[in-house]
Amino acid sequence: MQRLGAVHSSAAQALSLVVLLLQLLTQLPGADSALRYRVAEEGPPDVKIGNVAADLGLTAGTGSGDVTFALESGSEYFKIDNVTGELTTGPRRIDREKLPQCQMIFDENECFLDFEVSVIGPLQSWVDLFEGRVVITDINDNTPSFPSPVLQLSVEENRPIGTLYLLPTATDRDFGRNGIDRYELIQDGGAGTVFELQVADIPDGEKQPQLIVKGTLDREQKDSYELVLRVRDGGNPARSSQALLRVSITDVNDNSPQFERSTYEAEMAENAPPGTPVLQGTLRRVTFSVVSQPQDGGCYDSGLEDSETPSSKSSTGPRLGSLPLPEEGYERTTPEGSVGEEEHVENGTQMN
């Protein structure tokens, strides 16, 4: 009877195990179902992500005959309690901007880490494998910045009002609301009358800062401006940085050279040899030409070679006598301020 009873007892235990196994199998979802969670980047270890047991509809316990859990992949960033099925962050910090699969993604719903978890039945009677995905959400952990702390821009002085210049853009490793939100131009009273900032939305979703000329530029009055360009992101709290914007006003040929006086007089001895210094001007990078002829038929020379200016000629430079200089004979400007060829008038004929 005892043996028979023992046999009946073993059969009953086996039947109970089969019933329990069938119940567990009917509770489990299909193998193609994915476990989906979300967690913010840069969090500390042991941050709760979700409970795999509960999401699979299993009742986790502490007995040796209960279902257990194990990570098959993803253990680099996650860990799971093999008894309770609690999924948490691991000791390695998750930096969204450093994940290779997320560096070129600008939608937080597309930045994720996958994992696989195995569910092991009582007494290892069965094993099932489930896929999981954890979406990594962005936090405002990066400050937008410009490519250089000092930005250089050259603007010609004759540019009309409304002329637009593109400025360097800032970069932010965060995106969305934590990415670049706006640019600001900080300027003194003088610069505020000649420049203003405009920000354009470009097709790829970024913002392009532009500097617009809104006033008259005169290099002879002011040859440079120093402005501050600031960028802010949309985080809470917002992060910002700034760069110095140096605007150099470049010269154009908008002024004619002029002498300080309309007439220059000099005296010299009648027997002065050729090459005796008589008069030396102070203008630079202009061409001088003699437009009047002495009564004795000789020709006075400015003493300049083709590549010389008055400031570069030595005191022994002028070659011939007295040189009255009518003002109208010297208002000639060469292209780009370069030194041109001399001109002489002899016998009523101009020679170049």
From TrEMBL:
Keywords: Calcium, Cell adhesion, Glycoprotein, Membrane, Repeat, Signal, Transmembrane, Transmembrane helix
GO biological process, one term: homophilic cell adhesion via plasma membrane adhesion molecules
Chain spans, region Disordered: 294-352
InterPro entries: Cadherin-like_dom, Cadherin-like_sf, Cadherin_CS, Cadherin_N, Protocadherin/Cadherin-CA
Source species, domain of life: Eukaryota
Keyword Metal-binding among UniProt keywords: no
GO cellular component: plasma membrane
Protein name per Swiss-Prot or TrEMBL: Cadherin domain-containing protein
Protein species of origin: Salarias fasciatus
